[in-house]
Amino acid sequence: MLRNLPPSARSPIIHIANGTFYRHHPNSQSSHPNPALFKDLQFELPSSIPQPHNWCIVGPSLSGKTTFLQALRGRLLCEPPTARSYPYLSSDAVSSRLRTPNKAIQYVGFDAEQGAGGLSGAVTTSAYLSARYESRREITDFSLRDFLLGNTELNPAKTPAQESEQEGGISAELLKRVVKDLRLEHLLDLPVTFLSNGQGRRARIARALLTRPEVLLLDEPFMGLDPPTVTGLSPLLESLANKANPRLVLSARPQDPLPEWITHLVYLRMDCQVESMGPKEIVLDGLKKYVHGVRVGGLAEDEKLPIHTLADIGRVLSKEALMTHASSSSSAHLQKPINPDAEPLVEMDGCQVRYGDKIALGNWSQKTPEGDKAGLIWTVRRGERWGVFGPNGSGKTTIVSLLGSDHPQTYSLPIKLFGRSRLPEPGSGQLPLTFWDIQSRIGHSSPEVHQHMPRSHTIRQVVENAWAETFGAKPKLNAEASAKVEAALKWFEPELKPNSAAGSEGLKWADDYMFGEISFSAQRVALFVRSMIKGPDIVVLDESFSGMDDAVRDKCTLFLTDGESKTYVGEEIVESQQAKDGTVKLKGLSDQQALICIAHIKEEVPDCVRDDGWATEVKRAIPLEKVGSMSDEEGGTTRCCAPFLALTEPIEVSELGHVKTIFPSSFKIVYYKTMSPDGLDKPSAFFQWPWPSPLLFINESSDARDHCANERTFLSYLRLSIYMAIVSVAITVSFHIKGTPSDLERRVAKPLGGIFWVLSVVTLALGAGNYINGN
Asked: pTM to 2 decimals?
């Protein structure tokens, strides 16, 4: 059959024959080691063949999956140079605009570079997390439509929308079809900074498809997506693969289910070398035989091919598996917390997040002892472990933004954090918590933090950033904090240290390698350590384990509960050497800390939230019902926190895709033994020493982003008015006490007292007028 095809159709798009790859030229001088990658690689991606060749690159963390994809698109140095070629791109069958690999082969992923097709570069303009929620829009806050059409330059010579299709322009029909397939129609007019993690991933894929490439490289395309989105995305990719328009090459972790339509695999070792390559069934069969041989004792385990990374390899991603129905035998009844006397760290008493006339969060009523109350009612106490589950765009991250005070509406909502309000409470005599107070007591790891963490930070600087006020600020470290950083880097050295730094002495690698140079999995580990190392009152893990291998994730979740005291030896948990020596510097979560975990699949939920074996556990769920026309498909958020449901077993999140609820469906909460708190520091009194401090230093108890500071401004006017009144009374009283005042005192003191009294009244009136006008 191939004999009937023209030569151009038989030419492979990518042809690699005995090529070895390097990050730098082998003879160049570099501060970083430069090992040979994928030695003597032989790979070919056909341009036309009766049976499709749908490749997937599989490997554990640090195995080089992203590096392999970059090699395919011509980003690494190939030795010899002629070993890598793109014959089909030189043929007449290819449009002139796609004659170079940079244009014909598009990459979509979450690596530090995020080249073409990424929501990065000129598009990501926010310098802080709150920018996503603020009403003010900058000229560079491009909409999703602009991003998809390539209109992301302020003064472009020519936009893709103005180009012809032959030049690479995007037709209206193509745009309509792609955004419909990826369920992005309702998001087109939103700024890209508004998109959730999963929506951003779909937008990247859509942008790459609109360039109509010959090959699309998708780096872990299902990572961070909820089951319903995966259910829709996998068939879409299958249809593209079947039509070879474009041809697809995916990457995946060993534990990830492989789409049914994948036909060929490349399995990578942990030293960036190819272990096996070929048809899927043959590769999987060989790996399973290796695992069996090691377990029965017939084969020695290769340290670069550990069997624990292969335990779940070969699972199939199918629509039936994703849409498995969950049991509905739960009965609804209101539960009470295990320890209602534990100190509440978060108190939400009817919170509704509104954008204009739309309620994005809290469009429901909850039953309380006082009756039904609108909005989100939620209390997080010390020692509690919470799970928050739901589809992309459902509002999980919005809830987290309220906890960390990143959302501007936090200032106007009935929220108490650590027992104190964000705004002054009349008659309380205490100053509200500042943004910096809150941030210092919350450890936060999320895709948004990942996006904003400077790529120029070294690995050590990322971990030390837990003690800094902002991502770029200098951390305030003492000897204890520095010792914790050293211990954390040593504990997670296998997960953080790049393979190319194998010869580095001690922890020098942590100072030599930047955050943007390490793998995606290593970046997530570094951010997880950053969220834990300081021992904050609340730890928020928002999809923190997404992108990690099973082994890396299990090590992190064990560290979450036990710190340095426990470790894995194979698949067994044992006491660590540090615990035996009494040198443990890093401990797990204490019963004085609260945990809030957000995830899409059960495996990414720590055992302390979902484990069945705890005698003190209470498992509960809050189903989230859809609200009218504001369905997930239409881009709205939905309602949550209906009456609690008792659960008899942990939620299988992947089984809840069919449930018509917004976090499909549930919050799952597990409680854990708590202790009585030590209490918070006592708030400052209204009058404090030194007395002028409320006037001179009031900005120390506020911050530049207090959007609702009318009450604080009024208090400043009131203080000033009272001080002037005191001065006026003091002058007048001293004048009358003296028996025979001089002429100068008569001419100056008495009028001066009157002036201060008038100023006091005027200041109070100005303050009251400003407060009334501001509200």
From this structure: 0.71
